[in-house]
Structures are given as structure tokens and as C-alpha cells.
Amino acid sequence: MNVIFLTLSAVTVLGAVLAVTLRNLVHCLLALVLFFLGIAGNFFLMRADFLGAVQILIYIGAVAVLILFAIMLTRNISGTEGGRGPLGGAWWLGVGIAGTLAGAVCVFVRRSDLVTKFPYGATEEGVVKEIGKLLVSDWVVPLEIMAVLLTAALIGAVVIALEERK
Amino acid sequence: MSVPLGYYLVLGAVLFAIGLCGALTRKNAIAVLMSIEIMFNAAILNFVVFWYYLHNGALTGQVFALFAIAVAAAESAVGLALVIAVYRHYRSVNVDEMRTLKG
To answer: Three-class SS of residue B28?
Structure first.
């Protein structure tokens, strides 16, 4: 049993649990950053260093800051004022559904013959270079579609969030 | 040194379940979006895990995870813009108060 894997998993799960249970949204966001860091650590552990760096840059650098701006722009930080959740305040129902899902997945994981598989082996040096070459040769059409999607998302976000003119 | 594939799959399932639980029980729309980010990350973790354990020297799995991260980033930008637009309209981000379409 790998100690690094256990530590990283514990940190990741702790961050996720705190992010969905804390009442103050800014504290939730800090826990979410811890969760993102744990995921990035797992990427590094799996020798996907480029993805780990991308994870830190995009999620902690961009998405977390974006969420922080949204929290500050909407002012309702505590999240406790009035009203109930989508399930009518029945938090145990949500926990039950999620627990059932996790249990079902674990049962299927146990039955699978992939479970005991071990890594294929370390990749060679220069993975970033190879990914770059793949992106502009085999995957150039998806890359361009992604560029269009990101442009559309940028323009769409600006249009949606723009103040309505009376 | 390394752990078997099953441990990572269970970790992914647990993280996804935590995110689902948050998306079902939180009432603040931004908290719901954070829970969706947790689910996204659990899925991306699974992509990378399957790449790491089953790749035959190919990097396609990493490229796919990269695309998934880009889509998730676009989703969160548009989602947060929607939350801000809803807040302008209703002066609230509680999801149970957005029920104009309820019959």
C-alpha cells in the first residue's frame, strides 16, 4: 500500500467533503482549492506532470478566482439565509442517493477483472513535446472546435452577465 | 510501489458521490456549481487513471483529459455568468427561489 497515494486521497476527500458541507462559501472555496491540489497531486503521482500543471493553472488559477468573483458579486456568502435545498431540506435523501451510487460503483469495481491491474510503466521523457505534436496533427480538428467553444463561452458569458438595459 | 487500479476507481467513485451529494443538497447556486466542479474532477481523474494503467505508450488519454478540462472551464464560466444574471433578476442565488417555470 502506497503511503503517498493514501495521503493524497485523504487530502482530496477531505477537501471535497469540506467543500460541500461548510456553510461559509469562501471557506467552501478554500476547501475546493485543497481538493484541486489533491487531484493535481494524484496527476503528478501518475506521472502525468503536464496535466497536473494544467490542473493547477486552470482550476486553482482561473476557476477558483472566477468562483470567488461570483461569490463576491452575489453577496450571499453565508448560504444559510432562509429557504431550503432542492430536496426540501432533506439532506439525508441526498446523502442516501450519493451513498447508493458510490456503493453500486464499488460493487462493480470489485467484480471487474481490471481491479488488480498494475501500471503499464513509466512514460519516456518529453511527454509535453509529444502532446503538443499530437494536438496539431491527429487532434487538430478537436483543438479548433475547442477554440471555437471557448470563444463562444467567453462571448456568451459576457452577454449573459451584462446588465440589462431598461 | 503503486496501488492497483481498483483503489483509484473507488477514490473516483467516492469523490463523484460527494459532489453529487453536494449538488443535491446545497441551496446556494454557487455551491451547486462547486459540487459540479468536484464531479467533473472525479471524472477527469478517472480518465487519467485509465490512461496511466492501460496505455500502451500512447498519449491519447492525456489529450482527452486535456479536452475535458477545457470543456469544464467553459462550463464553469458560463454557469457563473448565469448565476450572476439570475442574482440581478431575483436578488438571490438560492436555487429553490428560481421557480418561475414551475406549474
So the answer is: strand
